[in-house]
Write a structure and sequence with these properties.
The structure is a homodimer of 491-residue chains.
Chain A: H1 18-31, H2 44-51, H3 55-67, E1 71-74, E2 78-81, E3 94-95, H4 104-107, E4 130-131, H5 144-154, H6 160-164, H7 173-183, E5 189-190, E6 196-199, H8 201-213, E7 219-224, H9 228-237, E8 240-247, E9 250-251, E10 262-265, H10 279-292, E11 295-299, H11 315-318, E12 324-329, E13 341-344, H12 347-361, H13 366-377, H14 380-406, E14 409-410, E15 420-424, H15 431-439, E16 443-444, E17 446-447, E18 461-465, H16 474-487
Helix pairs in contact in A: 1-3, 2-3, 5-13, 7-13, 8-9, 14-16
Amino acid sequence: MSVSVESFLMDPHHDGTLQSRIRQMVAQGILSGRMRRGERMPSSRKLAAHLGVSRITVTLAYADLVADDYLRAEGRSGYFVSEGAPEPGDHPPARASGGDAVDWGRMLGHRPESVPMSLGKPRNWRDFRYPFVYGQADPTLFDHANWRGCMLQALGQKDFALMTDDNFDHDDPALVEYIARHTLPRRGILAAPDEILVTLGAQNALWLTAQLLLNQRRTAAIEDPGYPGLREILRQTRCRVVPVPVGAQGLEPARVPAGTDILFCTPSHHCPTGATLPLEARHALLHEAAARNTLIVEDDYEFEITHGRAPLPALKSLDREGRVIHVGSFSKSLFPGLRLGFLVGPAPFIREARALRATVLRHPPGLLQRAASHFLSLGYYDAMLRRLTRSFSQRRAVLLEAAQAEGLTIGGAVDVGGSSLWMRTPQGVSAETLARDLHEDSVLIEPGARFFDRPEEGDRYYRIAYSSITEERIPEGIARIARRLRSGNWT
Amino acid sequence: MSVSVESFLMDPHHDGTLQSRIRQMVAQGILSGRMRRGERMPSSRKLAAHLGVSRITVTLAYADLVADDYLRAEGRSGYFVSEGAPEPGDHPPARASGGDAVDWGRMLGHRPESVPMSLGKPRNWRDFRYPFVYGQADPTLFDHANWRGCMLQALGQKDFALMTDDNFDHDDPALVEYIARHTLPRRGILAAPDEILVTLGAQNALWLTAQLLLNQRRTAAIEDPGYPGLREILRQTRCRVVPVPVGAQGLEPARVPAGTDILFCTPSHHCPTGATLPLEARHALLHEAAARNTLIVEDDYEFEITHGRAPLPALKSLDREGRVIHVGSFSKSLFPGLRLGFLVGPAPFIREARALRATVLRHPPGLLQRAASHFLSLGYYDAMLRRLTRSFSQRRAVLLEAAQAEGLTIGGAVDVGGSSLWMRTPQGVSAETLARDLHEDSVLIEPGARFFDRPEEGDRYYRIAYSSITEERIPEGIARIARRLRSGNWT
């Protein structure tokens, strides 16, 4: 038997060099059982002609496959599937989910309905011409070349142990040191390595904290509106959740109810309104917390993207009693897919968080910790942040101007820049409907209802982010929003 | 003011090129506030002489820093800290854990004592000459070059969205497809993409499963001895845990007690004895499970490292009722630091697992999913697996021969190879003591007590793995264990 040249189809959408694509076709043919041991491969000349590539490309791919014992060479141009090639599965596959013998509804218990997870962030956001989408990386601002360089360095022999080991009891020391010596001092925070835990993004840091500190007998206070991912986390702990209304200057310390065990807040840039908690309010908050023995979780998720005015010291830096747990993230500044964040708190708390993390997921991948630590310590991160904030600040100015020119209403803070603006629709206009209608105009905005404890209260709010839209497109995007608002039938 | 050349100290232990180390020293000097805006840098000639490097190296590093606006060049050879350089932290750092105002013992509640996490796997295992350590990658067998190549490909522009996006509602389609089309069929399993979830390693897959299916009213049965990480996971769910004794052929189906809601097992290679569950027992287990309405979680953690005889079909492949949840991992075959595993089960279960994963950690990093999917689909993975199993099989033969020659007693299975052997000490000899004493001989073995429900029952067992020790060193390592056993004072 010989393998027919027709079984080779070059997938035009596939990545990689021609040579690696040929290699892949052969390897997959063997692994799936389509090409069997001892079968003769098409000659390099024939295959090259069939695929429309040069003969040397095929020869090189074949040589590579011979080296890995997928193929063996015989004589001058004969290639055969090697006797040592891997066997395809021996057992005829059975469908995984056979039968309905199991009542999954019962087995999964009374779990809360899983939230519609794609809300506000459709997968195909890149297809929109005016994507005011929040929290995705902008390829035009990202420092590809140096990130690749740092990854390559982390992939080197020197870092092999850090990449491969099962290091569940400690994090990359270089990354922890960088966070302790550079990231935190800029927030006014001094922390020892045993007061820092690297987490799988800020979400994971918040989750670990909530798991450790809350249960059905405890009460958590959260900002309203606030980060929807947090509400989901708290639901899992079954604690009592009290929403605290947020004003133009963020959380009002006096409104945090007595009996609150843990307060979750975003003082740097309130999520989603962008309000910055004034210094006096920070002191007042700490004072109240001390009086009532409340712990505070400070989610500093977007601190590094500050422009417009100098950042205020973190709550944690003002805390003299060790009652603030600080959550940081590299997701907004590097990219969310990296999944690296950190938790800063007293050593006994961090110790328990580390043990819980080990049970749930062991540790954040060593390779990414090391690559990030190279990127940070070589100063590329700071250089990129400066480019990022410079660009965001320009985009914000354009956005504010366009919004004013078009008569849009801003519903949140305007003084300190993050990566988004919080907006309000005119009376009677549902932001949900607006967002849906705008899809037709290739405009993506995020309806605000999901940020509210009672979604109906948020029906007139929406978020427009400028982290993934170029400056030039902002005016037209805003104009389209305004046009919809003027033309719509909103009853 | 100018920056003194003495403030530059080349750290001999630091990674990277000379140029990048100079860059790093300057960037960190600026970020930490030691070098201030407007200060003059040492001339390239002076700094080069001080550091003992060539002048061009310093010039290139400076040019790089100028490009990123850390420095500015003036005239022909003057460099100054740029006025646009980042500011160091504005606020004097305060110690993170000030005061003891918070009673952390009370706040953390009655959490179980965190287990001593480094047990059996000391961080410095590389310092041992005879490291019979389990579950770490062997740099001599790992395919560095192609892994780097696949990482580079994943870092390319084409994969930017996959690397950076916040893709919490779906996994890398190419990785899922590979698992569905190649990995699972070899286990006899056919699964659709919505029946597969990529997890942060097998540990995370087990954790998600336990969280979804167990609570304080349910009963889990586990193997005894068994995987210690699982016991920790179950403790968190507060379910009832019933240990099921394991014999020479693994779990005995008849011994799974009535009333078991979920049975966790390792049929391919029982952890830690290495026993393989015979085909008849697999059928019997499924039969019992159906009769008692028990769900089975099959942890197939080491399947791909099978040598010695052909693997048996996975339990999941024999399951006609959809009551088996299958856990797989690339940790043992690629490396544990990668943290990639997967969960296979009925779609409604996978849907809930995905929602829970999103709350806890969002998703496994996209970059690693993509790099792994390149490595798998190009066939490098299979080629590496073959090298790995060939080498492990040789090491195992050497190990068995040495153990026999030295009169050591094997306490587990010998017929199917994984990456370790389960051993037993002579009467009266504590494996814990043996392991401790062997440190002096530069030999690392893993005491078995922690695998047992009642640790005292395991005091005579230990595990010796051959995944991180070279073939040549095995005989001497074994000889040293035997010498200790002969010479010891064990009362």
